[in-house]
């Protein structure tokens, strides 16, 4: 077993604190291809059983950031909308639809995401179903962002070292620390982030890790302690992180958005194709719970980035962008642009 992996696992077994540097070394060794599949699966399982701390998450994220391809762009004030997944609710891709609406509102978006591991559809899966080429190189993604105000950062491409982990994660089929890292490792170094976590405890740990890593402003949200998005049922807990300051906790309900409540069963899909159909219906102007969810999450993103002064103002901006057809036009432009540029790398 690789020495850095052994160090972490032994500390877990002895119930000792794992330092940020130890996690950075272990994840770095994994991503550099120095560890066997048994090393990696043992490491991921041990962390999942023990429960990853904010220190461990920050150390692992730092290792990933160091090895990531970087997007160069003239756009400033970027935001990312990225969730951990793993909530088992099988909702359509809310954060991906949100990214499109946010960008149509004039807020530049570098959407980070991956294929599904444990849900019905990952962001990469649904964008493909919507006709977007997800395999743009870092250079082309930067140009796409420059020209359209939005790009997709396919995690398996931008974090090439993930090739040593992806098959093992798929085979394990459980939530691992890498679900928590995706939101913290945006390749375009987005200054603003609306990050979702599937449980309150995970959201708080990600917020603490974001504070350790530093951010202009990040909202880490968990809907009703079950959804890695803003929810319109129950309460959404929001940890606001500015700079390296400790997270500040807020709570939102549907009433704070001026929107009608909905139920998670109204948002379920079983495939990327179904999720794409839901997103097409939303951006074509169809009313209903799916649209309200996207509008609410867009409002949160616009508030985070300073594009809106309140949640209700953000709701109005989102609804206007949809109703004017600007989101539908942006998606069509993104699909056409990505398909027409040949400097792409196909990822599986």
TrEMBL record:
HAMAP family: TrpD (MF_00211). Residues 7-67 form the Glycosyl transferase family 3 N-terminal domain. GO terms for biological process: L-tryptophan biosynthetic process. One of its GO terms (cellular component) is cytosol. Belongs to the anthranilate phosphoribosyltransferase family. One of its GO terms (molecular function) is anthranilate phosphoribosyltransferase activity. Anthranilate 1 binds at residues 83, 114. Homodimer. Mg(2+) 2 binds at residues 228-229. Pathway: Amino-acid biosynthesis; L-tryptophan biosynthesis; L-tryptophan from chorismate: step 2/5. Its cofactor is Mg(2+). Anthranilate 2 binds at residue 169. It catalyses: N-(5-phospho-beta-D-ribosyl)anthranilate + diphosphate = 5-phospho-alpha-D-ribose 1-diphosphate + anthranilate. Mg(2+) 1 binds at residues 95, 229. 5-phospho-alpha-D-ribose 1-diphosphate binds at residues 83, 86-87, 91, 93-96, 111-119, 123. This is Anthranilate phosphoribosyltransferase. The gene is trpD.
